[in-house]
Amino acid sequence: MPLPLSLTVRTESWPIAGAFSISRGAKTEARVVVAELNDGRHRGRGECVPYARYDETVKGVIEALGTVGQKLAFGLDRKTLQAELPAGAARNALDCAFWDLEAKRAGRPAYELAGLPVPHALTTAYTISLGTPEAMADAAGAASARKLLKIKLGGAGDAARIAAVRAAAPQSELIVDANEGWTADNLAANLAACAEAGVTLVEQPLPADDDAALAAIRRPMAVCADESVHDRASLAGLANRYDAVNIKLDKTGGLTEALAMAAEAERLGFGIMIGCMVATSLAMAPAMLVAQRARVVDLDGALLLAKDRPDGLRYEGSLVHPPTSRLWG
Fold it and tell me: Is the four-CA dihedral 256, 244, 49, 173 of positive or negative sign?
């Protein structure tokens, strides 16, 4: 008979090394919510980042987890959780905690429980925050030994920014994230500037509710949906607008939906990018299982922190290794 479960929820703040700046603003710390399941013998953990862009708050996520946690006594498990909470940060934390707990109870790694092959180390993008062309060139130059750089754009002067970055990092593959910061009027010019700089992918150039223009222009490189895509239900509406989708566990509501979404995205012909919020390795660890099938991996959230949690993911330059069981799964 399964042991009774208890749920503990806490919030943590992790300082960012410097500042993390995108088109919507800047922040100097990552505020995360950790869900921990405990049966008295085994402990499972999951971490999420509530995101204001999706009307999420730390307080709201904690309240949602507290409400659904009361149903543990009535048999709530990972499968029934999918219907109890909508896709989003709260479900992500608890879903990943269930996966971790299941692995600890079974004495088997989470990838094995999911029917997946042994994961291997992958090259992750490293993010260059939005700033002046000079500041971004300095940051790109310092990171120019990395194979893949993700460049945050989304404002007037983006052509100068991406040109400066390319000059500073001539050997790196560049991908761009505009975070909904472009408009239908400047879309073609910005894509042309990115093409001139050899950018291989542009992420979410237009606002999610105003991206129809993407279907009407020639796209000189792959365009990837981020804010326009959340879970499987949102995939069908992306046809003709996007070439790839960014799967983030905080959007899908956990590893369970992320794995199903990746399979459905592949069936529909979308390329897969795996992304993250700025958070600790505990949030990156489950995403490493989805990352094994991704064309672009962007799991540098923990690298952007001043300090990671104990037993965090091992990064060797831009190479990120799968988690050990001491961290998750």
Answer: positive
